[in-house]
Amino acid sequence: MYTNSERGYETMTLVDKTQTKSRPSNYMEELAENVLEDLLPEYKGARFNENAIQDIKALALNRLWPMYMTSDAGKNFLKKIIQEDKIEKDVVRELRAAIDIVKSNPHK
Fold first, then answer.
1. pLDDT tens sequence across 41-51
2. Hey, where are the domains in the chain?
3. Interior CA angle at 24 toward 87 and 61, to 5°?
4. Can you tell me the distance from the alpha carbon of 99 to that of 81, in angstroms, rounded to the nearest whole number?
5. Helical axes 72-85 vs 27-39, angle rounded to 10°
6. How far apart are alpha carbons 56 and 29 in whole angstroms?
7. 41-99: pLDDT as tens digits
8. What is the 3-state secondary structure (H, E, C) of 36-58?
9. Which of 3, 7, 26, 55 is the most buried (most CB within 10 A)?
């Protein structure tokens, strides 16, 4: 996989063609789940059951862009992009908005 270096993007090279690849998975889902685990303790008065947590993740992920990967090299590449572009702050913002929506509209 590579990107256009003429536009200032770094080139990602395949290190090992024999590397095992898996099905595409969305790294944004993993990132959102990890960030949400860190955010929930801040909402001490609120109790979120598993359905509410899934709703929060779904609402946030629908407002974030997917970042698919098929290998560890791809995951490492995405982690670097997330760090350089400060994408985690966007994830935090969308998760906070989703938490507020779910808190205001509990399941009955």
1. 999 888 899 99
2. 25-104
3. 40
4. 26
5. 60
6. 12
7. 999 888 899 999 999 999 999 999 999 999 999 999 999 999 998 999 999 999 999 99
8. HHHHHHHCCCCCCCHHHHHHHHH
9. 55
